[in-house]
Amino acid sequence: MADTMTEAPPGDTDPAAIAARYHNRPEALIEILLDLQEAAGAITDADLRAIADSLNLTRAEVHGVMSFYHDLRRTPAAPAVVKICRGEACQSLGAERLVVATCEHLGVELGATSDRATVEAVYCLGNCALSPAAMVNGRLMGRATVDEIVTSVDRVSGP
Amino acid sequence: MNQIRQADFGTPAARGEATVTVTIDGMAIDVPAGTSVMRAASLLDRPIPKLCATDSLQAFGSCRLCLVEIDGVKGTPASCTTPVTDGMVVRTETDRLRKLRRGVMELYISDHPLDCLTCSDNGDCELQDMAGAVGLREVRYGMEGANHFDAESREPVDASNPYFQFDPSKCIVCSRCVHACDEVQGTFALTVEGRGFGSKISAGTFADDFFASECVSCGACVAACPTATLQETAVVEKGVPSRVVETTCAYCGVGCSFQAELRGNDVVRMTPSKSGGANEGHSCVKGRFAFGYATHPDRVLKPMIRERTTDPWREVTWDEAIAHTARRLRELQDTHGRDAIGAVTSSRCTNEEVYVIQKMVRAAFGNNNVDTCARVCHSPTGYGLKTTFGTSAGTQDFKSVEKADVILVIGANPTDGHPVFASRMKRRLREGAKLIVVDPRRIDLVRTPHIEAAHHIPLTPGTNVAVMNAFAHVVVTEGLVDEAFVAERCEDESFARWRDFAALPENAPETLAEAIGVDAGTLRAAARLFARAGNAAIYYGLGVTEHSQGSTMVMAMANLAMATGNIGREGVGVNPLRGQNNVQGSCDMGSFPHELPGYRHVSDTNVRAAFDADWGVTVPDEPGLRIPNMLAESVSGRFRGLLIQGEDLAQSDPNTQHVTNALSQLDFLVVQDLFLNETAAYAHVFLPGTSFLEKDGTFTNAERRLNRVRPVMTEKTGLSEWETIARISDAMGYPMSYASAADIMDEVARLTPTFAGVSHARLDHEGSMQWPVTDAAPTGTPVMHVEGFVRGRGQFMVTRYVPTDERANRRFPLLLTTGRILSQYNVGAQTRRTENVRWHDEDVLEVHPHDAEVRGIRTGQRVSLTSRKGGTTLTAVVTDRVPQGVVYTTFHHPDSGANVVTTEYSDWATNCPEYKVTAVEITPANEPARWQEEWQTTRATRYDIRVPAE
Description:
The complex is a heterodimer of chains A (159) and B (950). Chain A is an alpha+beta fold and 159 residues long. In chain A, 43% of the residues lie in helices and 11% in strands.
């Protein structure tokens, strides 16, 4: 099969159209889910069913994959997604304090979403040498501080 | 040893030819290459503790309990995923292993409720057994940590399915159930949701419970579950069964072997037998769960008589019922002649029961007026395959599908009608075999998770023969004939004639495309795919036979299989999917008016002589009446008395109003059945029948496999069917003195060459056998025509396509076709009396969006469905599953009246009704059809039974 991608217009939120970009190949499930989430912000139950249908999978199979990955969302995240590492190395350099302080500054609980930020725990960002590590909208920070995180959030969501 | 639990070697048998030698705990064993260490140890009776492995599934090594030590191998590999190698030395019990296993078990148990004494699986739980096997004595982690079982954290039990429940608090997330759903059933309805400690088995999405999910209730996950997590509701309510009777399912022609598991005389559950040749441990929702009808309060358990069909029923003794029946039948013969009476056998009954009826007709009635309900389903199969190959039966065993490269499914819906075979077929399709579906309707197999047909040919109903002729044309004109096979195995002359016929321009796909309603390119591509396959197999159902050219179509498929060399080995063949459990058997047993047992014509002097000598009578040499003839002659007054066993003519035969009119004209009608069915409304005597749980005998499935049916309880009626018939025969002056059903089979074997080696004793010893069982094939015949065709050389038949007389016109512009659904079975007499109605409580009419729109019909609306024969009303479902111009319904509910609409047209050779094509019109309806109103008013009087004062 030709592996050229049929270009769907960017921002297309139709799950069937996104699946078609990947020739409805079941092994492209994760890419399809990520593209859809990128475009639509979250993946609804109806999207899940439509993707299952396009890929000729059951909805259980798609649900199994979706529920495995925390990055695949049923409801939209805030404009800024903050991930703070709570792995051992980061904990030893104050990750827990960073979590508490960040949540306090942003006025949101760990794992929750406000209109400005979603704050999540992760368990390794591969940046142990520069612990504690954090990430805002995909941008990695070493020796992360509350100020740096909050500044990044402000840049995305406004002060 | 727990007799309920079937032997489990942990991993499936390896198929390798070469053997390797492995030493386990000091004992050597030779096993096929590819065998797991676990299986080899099990074969040595050194079972290794395990939780996730089971021999119905490929090993996936998740539980980490089955660790072993292997010389020269670092660490402690899992025995389920480690294949043996030659010279391997394995230890299954060492201090290190014991410690490891105990540690693993401790972790499992730390998140498992310690409520064994009140658990429904107590005594039948693998987790409990393994805790014992590894010597678990304590849980050092305590039970107080985060868990899934205490009152605050446990999730509720999912009891949405009527037959089994899901209790996540007992789950060890071994994922056997997920693997069973995927590998065994092929439905992929289950998954592991989440990750890590939060992992949970889920049937679909957060929005689904088991009932709402894609689950088809086959029970594979329940059978696979090592704990009480997935548990039959009946076990929860009644307790773990205490004894087992091996028997055979009485639903479809797959003929699954089951363990009936009982407490006392209560069947607690039916568990599929791994040793069953047809099902190899698998089951469907009907066989596994829908057996409650056998003890349903609607069952009639006492014989009943009435003078007129308007009288209430009067319960009588067996003696009175039998004497009365014999006397009335003889009186009718005295007054109206020997041929004025007859009988109809049932494909639901055992071979022995059927044999005795045809014997009664031939020996006691003295005529050949015996027919079978196979008349209305697979009679064209018998005719067509006998003409071309020489045997009235399918050519393969089910296992054969594992070797097929291209599978052609015509007029069958296996995932609904023959689900256990469908699972075997789907497994092969997932392995890469190609699929061609010829069906007007987009059946599930056309596209279902992990399966997609290479070609779907949504033909216009009634054009099957045109499709096969188009295939034949491609084969002969594109050089795709297997010349060597044809030259070696088939008749030169008939082949030459057929080849010339097939090559005619009238058979070109381009010519036929318009009639078929499918473009020529698709037809050509499908024909090429079939002809070029290494192994191409045809599977078909009533969408082939129930047409005016039903027999022609069977022969057309046989032609195609012969021309492409697809007969006589595994992976190929022409395979009828039989609708009923014993269609094959009831035909084998001489139920047709022209054939004695073993498909031998009554005009054959030598055959008749054998029966004359054995039975001490003179069997008439003229064929008797077929069912349609009986009905017609009833209307004309020549046919006066009929005994019907286990068939509901009034619901199942076409043109209901003609059938009921004919039945009501009979002077004397005897019905033997479990329930007062639609036909019983016209009966004068009702003889209560026995369910399969009470029967002793044999059923023969679609692969010619004779399976034993064993009674798990005594007859609730006090008398078996064969005894009833034998006593009627006695009373009519022809004594039958059988001591048991086994005696009857001995007589069959004595008089029927293809059954020569069959006996109950051998079946009990060997499990099952596929006929012919002869001196040449002492253990039976899984695949037929291996050395050559039974008739000598294969005969090609010219199969000209003749459009049916039943055509759409301006008044009736649509074509109605019919089918079945997974949860219901035929006229529904059994399944309607079980929880299966939860899935299908009403027959609906599928209508294409275009046809619906022009008529202003929406889903959920009542519509009137009329043909030139009659009318009924149904609820519409608008769907593109059916092509434009075609409407479709099922026929499981009597008030649907699907057969009020169907016509009297039938197959030219066998009179098999043309159920699958009826020209109809549909319109929105406000009220029920007149027929339905009448049916509702007479329904009340039908169950009017007067119990005699004690």
